[in-house]
Amino acid sequence: MVFHSGHLSRQEALNILNLPDEALPELIDAAYAVRKKYKGNVVNIQLLTNARSGDCTQNCAYCAQSRASQAGIPKYNLVSYEKLLQDGYTVREKKLARHCIGLSGIRFSDQEIDEFANYIKGLKRETQTHICCSIGFLTPGQAEKLKAAGVNRINHNLNTSRNFYPAICTTHTYEERIANIKMLQGMGFEICCGGIVGLGESKTDVVDMLIAIQAIHPQSVPVNFLIPIEGTALANADTSHLSAEYCLKVLCLARLLNPKADIRCAGGREIYLKGKEKWLFAVVDSIFASGYLTAGGQNIEDAVKIVTEAGFQYTIEPA
Ligand code: SF4
């Protein structure tokens, strides 16, 4: 079978997710050719700081920080500057590619943004790292302040398809997410935009989400595989279909649709793709180390080890 990259029809994309597992090596070869052409053999490792945790007003079904969640997570309004700086130094010293900073919540007061922008200014001055923030819906004025403070990239995920969105969240809409991304992109931010697989969506929803992400032309596409968290609405979600083979097909599709973007295997990597690193890194060029917003993960040393043992290199990206 011949696989091409760039524009794929909805049916062609769906055919990839429906491939028999025996066809996976051929699909991975095709994804690797694209990855090698645009990304070489480098894997970016990124660190994630949860700068504001819990007490969100929104009801995203997968999220431990949502108002509907009973998960026993730490809750704080803003992490200490010292902790943020400590993470920034780790990013610099371990030669990681980027410092990702997530804040729970969907809207922020100007005062909160001013305080956070001051943190970012200090962090940028001290560490000179590439900074990406995941920070809800911003007003243009708030976004300008963060840009001036040194934020390079904004993460705002679509999470799933337009059709399936109301099944995972009813407190804001998919369209609001698209509008926020477009506004930020128009202001010159790099965009990181991805989603979560395993929420109860169909394969067509995964295809629709990835095609919608492609239309945004993001610099980075994080693909998460659901980690069901106790206390959330999806605590008992059936993830039995998230075989390594299925996850790899999703990642190959993300790579073929977005040849030049960073394709990141984010949450769930350590669970669903453990032991499959040679295949994984043939497709993706980016991972997180040291855990996710509210879930633990592999430490930096082990992440570096699996990258190098799989025959790939990790390296710093200039800010
Ligand atoms: S995903 Fe974001 S917006 Fe949704 S509940 Fe969690 S913190 Fe709030």
UniProtKB/TrEMBL annotation:
[2Fe-2S] cluster binds at C100, C132, C192, R264. It catalyses: (4R,5S)-dethiobiotin + (sulfur carrier)-SH + 2 reduced [2Fe-2S]-[ferredoxin] + 2 S-adenosyl-L-methionine = (sulfur carrier)-H + biotin + 2 5'-deoxyadenosine + 2 L-methionine + 2 oxidized [2Fe-2S]-[ferredoxin]. GO terms for biological process: biotin biosynthetic process. The keyword DNA repair does not apply. Residues 38-269 form the Radical SAM core domain. Gene3D superfamilies: Aldolase class I (3.20.20.70). It comes from Methylomusa anaerophila. Catalyzes the conversion of dethiobiotin (DTB) to biotin by the insertion of a sulfur atom into dethiobiotin via a radical-based mechanism. InterPro entries: Aldolase_TIM, BATS_dom, Biotin_synth/BioAB, Biotin_synthase, Elp3/MiaA/NifB-like_rSAM, rSAM, rSAM_sf. Belongs to the radical SAM superfamily. Biotin synthase family. Homodimer. Binds 1 [4Fe-4S] cluster. The cluster is coordinated with 3 cysteines and an exchangeable S-adenosyl-L-methionine. Binds 1 [2Fe-2S] cluster. The cluster is coordinated with 3 cysteines and 1 arginine. HAMAP family: BioB. Keywords: 2Fe-2S, 4Fe-4S, Biotin biosynthesis, Iron, Iron-sulfur, Metal-binding, S-adenosyl-L-methionine, Transferase. GO terms for molecular function: 2 iron, 2 sulfur cluster binding; 4 iron, 4 sulfur cluster binding; biotin synthase activity; iron ion binding. It is an enzyme of class 2 (transferase). It holds the Pfam family Radical_SAM. Pathway: Cofactor biosynthesis; biotin biosynthesis; biotin from 7,8-diaminononanoate: step 2/2. Its cofactor is [4Fe-4S] cluster; [2Fe-2S] cluster. This is Biotin synthase. Its EC number is 2.8.1.6. It comes from the Bacteria.
